[in-house]
Amino acid sequence: MSATWGEKFKITLFGESHAEAIGAVLDGVPAGFRLDTDAIAAEIARRAPGGDLSTPRKEADQVRLLCGVKDGVAEGTPIAAVIFNTNVKSSDYSQLERLMRPGHSDYGYHVKYGGHNDVRGGGASSGRLTAPLVFAGAVAKQLLAEQGIAVGAHILSVADVEDERFGTQIDPAVFARLSAMRLPLLDESKTDAVRAAIEGARKDGDSVGGVIQCAVTGVSAGVGSPFFESVESRIASLAFSVPAVKAVEFGDGYGLTKLRGSQANDPMRYDGGVVKTTTNRNGGVIGGVTNGMPIVFDVAIKPTASIFKPQDTVDVVAKEDAVLTLKGRHDPCIVTRAVPVIEAIAAIAVFDLLGR
Amino acid sequence: MSATWGEKFKITLFGESHAEAIGAVLDGVPAGFRLDTDAIAAEIARRAPGGDLSTPRKEADQVRLLCGVKDGVAEGTPIAAVIFNTNVKSSDYSQLERLMRPGHSDYGYHVKYGGHNDVRGGGASSGRLTAPLVFAGAVAKQLLAEQGIAVGAHILSVADVEDERFGTQIDPAVFARLSAMRLPLLDESKTDAVRAAIEGARKDGDSVGGVIQCAVTGVSAGVGSPFFESVESRIASLAFSVPAVKAVEFGDGYGLTKLRGSQANDPMRYDGGVVKTTTNRNGGVIGGVTNGMPIVFDVAIKPTASIFKPQDTVDVVAKEDAVLTLKGRHDPCIVTRAVPVIEAIAAIAVFDLLGR
Amino acid sequence: MSATWGEKFKITLFGESHAEAIGAVLDGVPAGFRLDTDAIAAEIARRAPGGDLSTPRKEADQVRLLCGVKDGVAEGTPIAAVIFNTNVKSSDYSQLERLMRPGHSDYGYHVKYGGHNDVRGGGASSGRLTAPLVFAGAVAKQLLAEQGIAVGAHILSVADVEDERFGTQIDPAVFARLSAMRLPLLDESKTDAVRAAIEGARKDGDSVGGVIQCAVTGVSAGVGSPFFESVESRIASLAFSVPAVKAVEFGDGYGLTKLRGSQANDPMRYDGGVVKTTTNRNGGVIGGVTNGMPIVFDVAIKPTASIFKPQDTVDVVAKEDAVLTLKGRHDPCIVTRAVPVIEAIAAIAVFDLLGR
Amino acid sequence: MSATWGEKFKITLFGESHAEAIGAVLDGVPAGFRLDTDAIAAEIARRAPGGDLSTPRKEADQVRLLCGVKDGVAEGTPIAAVIFNTNVKSSDYSQLERLMRPGHSDYGYHVKYGGHNDVRGGGASSGRLTAPLVFAGAVAKQLLAEQGIAVGAHILSVADVEDERFGTQIDPAVFARLSAMRLPLLDESKTDAVRAAIEGARKDGDSVGGVIQCAVTGVSAGVGSPFFESVESRIASLAFSVPAVKAVEFGDGYGLTKLRGSQANDPMRYDGGVVKTTTNRNGGVIGGVTNGMPIVFDVAIKPTASIFKPQDTVDVVAKEDAVLTLKGRHDPCIVTRAVPVIEAIAAIAVFDLLGR
Predict the structure, then answer these.
(1) Which of D8, D9, D10, D12 to mutate to test the interface with B (most CBs of B within 10 A)?
(2) CA distances from D320 to B138, C272, C286, D314 (A)
(3) Is A188 on the interface with D (CB under 8 A)?
(4) Total tally of structural domains belonging to chain B
(5) What residues make up the domain containing A153?
């Protein structure tokens, strides 16, 4: 029941897709830190819909800072950031109080909230709530940059199309390049194939999912804790907060289970006086604590639940089986828009852990 | 830096492998609840080493309840459970203050704790600390059983040997059968192959990993929350606390990314007046909240980091490269022993969420 | 550094006196609960300035609910409540970046925030931030009323003028009467004396403080916990969050230290089948847990720090001693306006503890 | 229901007076910190009974560190400290399952725990649980000393006998002198009067209470936060966790309500380049944050609830009124033994706030 996450860098999330506003309260931005509002707006824009691969709905998504910032500088007190919902079309959602959308949270929420939840636009589990997360992540990225830490991500796969994986060494310069791409891929030759997979699903009134791989470079060894505050626990608890994320793995993850220990253990060497590993199969974290290598993880994003094909479902008012055919505007693939969200949660999780 | 997890059912973990004791404080066991100490001992025994597939070291692992329980009945106050370390052989660990074991937390902890951490037996990230987790899980299981909720797990794979997956419907009776097996497999015909994979690694002085699939049946729809207290976030934050866990997926997880939405969305039907889904690809949780289907997740366990082959590493005292050859007693595969641990964290996470 | 308080009923507070807005996010209002917005407005109005005893500044203080409520009914998701600051006069505050106001938080905040805090109107410690607390308290009161629990308070003293104390039995009907009074006194004959004390201070450009006594009736025995979640700990942690509160006592508090145990121990009797005490010197809480009697506590409110007499202080820019003479609009006594605030924190604290 | 307190310095408390043990898990002691075990033992001894003014019961109260410390040096991992209960006489407590002791937590706990709580020796609200608090406080004091921060306390009153108050400037050397006194008084000429008050109560089978004043010197300005993490909130939440504490005030507390603002506002001056106040009526904290002056607070300790006079009470088994006459061993005044406990909670609260 908690909308609040974090210890040193605490975020409280609120809003529904069709309420007056969504937003977040951010506690823990150091006094005197100058926010780069252009960079924040750019991150928000990366998540916003509107491209040719995405829903045609136009959202303004302007972040309004109600307090905690004066003349662009953080005061050290909580920052309340609000995005007013300016473009809501509630008429699309009339049947949703009866018919539960398969793959959506509708039925679970209907039971949890006794039917009082707002079903319009996904309500409390709406992807729109990731916009305030991206805001918080943009602030965290700026705070991390001061310490030489960078965060970036790319599309590792969409449907069956696969990108390369990050290598053992990661030059953070690649992150800037990726963040400027509409389809951030390490292997740009896959762009058309990804596009084709998404367009194919759209034409069929269907959807596709994918995998996003994220890396955090510049984190020194010794961050995190054994057990409950492991780096993995903290990142995963945020990653699984993002709607549609169904899996998280660090380093080679499931791939490690096919290796022997002699292959999975990353060998260590001194490199210019610094301890490094010659492979990074463990994703920069062992025993919950960083080892100085890039933190690398990826998340599985399931196909968008909203599709236009008829689906078997239930009518919770009539208490009978039914068939649902959705109308409206929906992304056939949210993987691209989720990239900045995954970067954001990585930034939030890592900044919150630093100095603890 | 927090050794405490949970809201309604709070566990505080302490101890190192070679300290005087390990243990946990458990806060939130309802007053008047009669603990089944035999069942607790049985769970602890499942995790204990000693079988032919495991380390030859004998550990007594007797749980001593210091307070919070009177005549076998919980008083409602915190229960402190302690396991004294009776069989520690510190002489094996002399070189470990210099040579960092690849695949282990040694280097990260060396930096984090400034060299003051106890390196013997894995120290603060020792697998031994999962024994108090199993204790807490055993209590949680008993509390869940009162509400008709059951927890079980099986080995989904070891190295390349794969078991069947849980089906859409899960009869909790299968959990009792699995928990009595030394190699809990749904497809028992794979027993010899699993055994061969482990023995093969042992003979080579190497190790193997695997995947554990866990299910929780009987949880009604509406448990969990959107965003930060999603069922996935809570289970994953505990699962990633367990040493060697490198990935967590719910339902079909990564498999969902290869499907289209029309395949990934579980269709809903009334079944005897109850809403069910005809597939359970989402693992019983959507938008962070249960939908009444079994909660199903699996975790990747990397190969045991302690192997007997020479490994490239660093000497942090001499600050130079080195080769480490470990001696002593180590499991070539901890997947089997981790099965009750994963059940435990599932039980803890679900019980903590109920009624919130 | 936490702006968030509570477990089951969680409030996140934000804003400064001269920022764009102040507000709170309220997490834990049960889905389906119909908010009485008139009652909320009435509570906010009780705290608002504007009476003849208070600052002449007019504040609108309209609470705008951004999300979490639909058609007046709580959805079960976080409620974000915002009060826009419509009547700020920043020109009054120009000298305050140099001269620290004695009795104010100015100097501590100047150091804490490195001079980046907003000094206008009290900034982050402004009494204005109690308005969102009153909002949250108004919601808590409504939730408590459903369970037969009532909250009320009166002015126990202003300067040397003393009101009666609540008796052992408290009829909640008196709370309604008190809440309608501008100077809520049990002994109304003291009204003129209180008024004279306040007006006397105003004429002298000075201020007075006082004591507020608060009671919560209808709480059954067994609420609270030993030690860290004692009822006293929870109420006190909130009470001391309110600016100008310098002391909190339960029941007879300091008076108990002048009694012997035989006088301080409240005798117990069955009264219509219910256990009651014949005195309530312990204020309804013993060992951290309620005993079924009214919870009674009082708080000391220091004299308003803003006065118009010249005061010795420091100039933190010139780093030299200085004399400060404040201008502007200030209450000579905030005790009356603090009454609904103290009721609010009592309601929040008690509701948060119920059912835990 | 939480037995855990703190953020950076987290304490989890467990045990009952007549369980096998009491203790605490301490999380947040920096790796490499050498614990002064003699100083810890000395603090524990200050709290222990045995003097001529106290209960004749002998308690060994030896703290055993189960983990987190190696060769006297903190490893950075949780420290579990256990005190085994070696001298329990349960036979004294047979009637207490029926007859609720007035002034004790018995009735509230009986309801809360459904009669499953351990009534022997005060059970979960036993003063014995303050021993682990003193342990944690002793560690905190050592950590604070490294930063030039000292904590001390004295008896401000017992019954009607009053000591002097701490002055505006406090030389921490006085703390050492006080901590060596059985009756720590600033005005030693009051020793006999205090002794007479306690002995008089003992002869009457009755008890007396008193007030303890505590000071923390050396804390720089800027520690604490506005609102929920105010220094006062944090200290008070711990102080009210201590059994028998019924009131807490900072600085002049209730006395401030009798002053005008021009008297209550502490004037500020530069003193050797440092900002100081010429009085310290606000107890070193304004708006939740320290101002660099000593933090000064006092707490009211009610008379010991266990007295030997017959008392009206209820029999919760027979559900009828009854008269209780206690036997056994009880302190006629716990104020002296509570002095190190109040110092402990001050040290814990302040250390937890530093650097946040």
Answers:
(1) D12
(2) 41, 11, 21, 6
(3) no
(4) 1
(5) 4-353
